[in-house]
Every structure is written in C-alpha cells, then in structure tokens.
Amino acid sequence: MNAPLLQINGLHVAYKVYGTRHHVLNGISISVEKGEKVGIIGESGCGKTTTLKSVLRILPSNALIEGGEILYDSKNVLKMDGNELRKLRRTKVSMIFQDPTAALNPVFKIGEQLFDIIRAKYEDGGRSLTSKEIREEAEMLIRQVMLPEPERILSSYPFQLSGGMRQRVMIAMALASASELLLADEPTTNLDVTIQDQILRLIDRIVNEKKLSIVLVSHALGAVRKMVNRVYVMYAGTIVEEGRTRDVFENPLHPYTKMLLASAPKLTGEGISEGIPGRIPDYSSPPPGCRFHPRCPSATPACRFKEPKMVEVEPNHRVACYLYSMRGE
Ligand code: SF4
Q1: Distance 201 CA to ligand 1 centre (A)
Q2: Is position 124 within any domain?
Q3: Is beta strand 213-217 parallel, antiparallel or unpaired with respect to 181-185?
C-alpha cells in the first residue's frame, strides 16, 4: 500500500506569549491519501488553523514545534531546507485563507500578484514563460473560478472587488501553485450565506476536476458533510474522533462530537440551538486527563487523570474517550 500523501504524526505546537507556553496542538495525527477529501471540524480556537499552517511551515514567529513529524510524500516537512520548502509551497501544496483581504496585497493589482505566483512556479520547474503565456494562464485561472471579464479583474486592486470576488481570486492563486493538495481554512467565513454555498461548490468542482486532495476546515457542517470522505473532530488541540464522514455524522461517538453536531444551526423549524456550554480551556494550563472533562456531561473522576487513547470502535471509526475504552489503560 502506498504511503499517504500527507501524514502528520503526534504533532505538538505551542505559542510563546509573554514567556508562557500555550500548548495549542497536543500530539495530533492526521493522514490524507492522494485524491482524498478530508475535513476537520471543531469550535473556533481548537487548533485547526495551526494544524494547516504547520504543514506549510507558515506559523507565526512565536510558534514552537515541540514534537512530532509532518510527512509529505514521505519527506519530513519539518526537516526540509529553504529550497525544498519553497518548491513544496510553489508547486504542490497551497492554502486558501479565511480572510482574502489579509492574504492579498492591497497595493498591487490582482494581475501582478497572480503573475508572480505563476512565474515562480514555472521557474522552479526549470522553465521560464513569456509575459503573454503568463497572462494567458492567469486569465484561464480567473475563468476557472467563474469570474467574468478576466482582463478587468487582473487590472483591479483588491479593494475594487467584492468579498466573494476576492475569495475567488484567492482560490485562483491557490490553484496557480497547488498541483496536489489544497488546504482550505474556513474559506467562506467572511462571506454572505448565499455566496458561501457557491464558493464551496466551486472548490469542490475544481478539486474533482483536477483530482486534488483537500483538507477542508469549515464551520459549515452541512457543506463538510457533503464534500469530504473522511472527517477529524478536534477539541482543544486534540483529535477526539475520526472516521468516514457518514459514520461520524450519523453515529457520532465522542460526547464533544455529539454536542458539536447538535449545536449546528438547524433550518428545520426547530430554531437555532444553543452552543456547547463552557469554553475551550486556557492553553497555558490545559486540564489534565481528557481535555474535554470540564465540559463533558458524561465525565467521571477518572477522566481527569489520564488522557484517553484512540480506540477503533467500528471499522475505520475511532474515538478517544473512556466511554469506549477501559479506564486507566
Ligand atoms: Fe467525557 Fe471522560 Fe469521554 Fe472525556 S473521556 S469525553 S470526559 S467521558
């Protein structure tokens, strides 16, 4: 069997804030096969963005990778030198960020920004394109993300476009360099509800057409359910459940997953339900044992002492909770 395209093993990441370490990722493990669509769900602040940024090594300067490995095509990203890393970002993996305004440079026209990405990708492959070829590829990418009048878009500044258009431009930029894996971090958060659905469908169509793999982080649980094959549930820097999308959504095992799915807004006339009571823990001194125990309605005193291990409850459906494993194992 081939090695996964992306394999994160036991990744620990902390942020240093005023001399204190905030342990945001607590030994997470995630894998993505070639052509696979994987989702990560969980409340804001659970470490999802940190996970994606770790893969491209674009974490802020106060981040410390304290342990684990990230294998891309069996090569450890954490040990790549500058050249290897640049090649990975320019030709194989790219990220769609939550906020296109922050990701696009406001003082350069869209065209200039997109041309640079296309030029760099080909230069890394040992080929230089003419200006005409670069422009043609940029126009093709703009058309792929269903934006009209590519010439006008390319000669616009980011502020001259609507939020939905900027997000499509950012997808085009991600596509300019990703030939294998897209990391989509809440790609629709700042958009109108009607546009959100269009953007997610666009990403899905492009991923299918180009046979890319994707890791989708989204609060739009309905969209995640429709789009991905497998899902990881993350709570406070820990993977608490993983499985095929249908199994996790139809038969959630972990108390957190159950509450998360129950707290999703319902459009069925039952009204919008309350969020999960309590808050994500303080990462500078997270609770011992199961990190969810202060909020868990099923917690017992034993849950406070030792972190539960992942156990397979049914084929390809795993959970880290003492309700499914022997306490004290
Ligand atoms: Fe709740 Fe205990 Fe399971 Fe954690 S291990 S989710 S506290 S029952």
Answers
A1: 36
A2: yes
A3: parallel
Atom of ligand 1 nearest to the CA of 298: 8
245 vs 200: which has the higher pLDDT: 245
Q: What pLDDT, on a 0 to 100 scale, did the predictor assign at position 129?
A: 87
Distance, CA 322 to ligand 1 centroid (Å)? 6
- CA separation, residue 235 to residues 24, 118, 173, 211, 282 (Å): 10, 37, 31, 30, 12
Q: How do strand 93-96 and strand 181-185 relate by DSSP bridges?
A: parallel
pLDDT in tens, 74-90: 999 999 999 999 999 98
Mean pLDDT of the chain: 90
- Over the stretch 254-275, which tens digit does the pLDDT of each residue have? 999 999 999 876 544 444 445 7
Residue range(s) defining the domain that contains residue 86: 6-34+54-184+192-211
pLDDT, average across residues 130-135: 93
Nearest CA to ligand 1 atom 5: 321
Q: Is residue 233 part of a domain?
A: no
pLDDT value for 118: 92
User: Could you tell me the distance, in angstroms and rounded to a whole number, from the CA of residue 171 to the centre of ligand 1?
Assistant: 39
- Answer yes or no: is the C-beta of 253 below 6 A from any ligand 1 atom: no
Separation between Cα atoms, residue 302 and residue 130, nearest integer Å? 66
- Ligand 1 pocket member 232 (CB < 6 A): no
* pTM higher than 0.85: yes
CATH at 102: 3.40.50.300
Is 174 inside any structural domain? yes
Q: Is the CB of 235 under 6 A from ligand 1?
A: no
* Residue 175 resides in a domain: yes
The closest residue, in CA terms, to atom 7 on ligand 1 is 293
Number of domains in the chain: 1
For every residue of 244-271, DSSP letters joined together read: EHHHHHHS--SHHHHHHHHTS---SSS-
Percentage, residues of the chain above pLDDT 70:
95
Q: Is 298 a pocket residue for ligand 1 (Cβ < 6 Å)?
A: yes
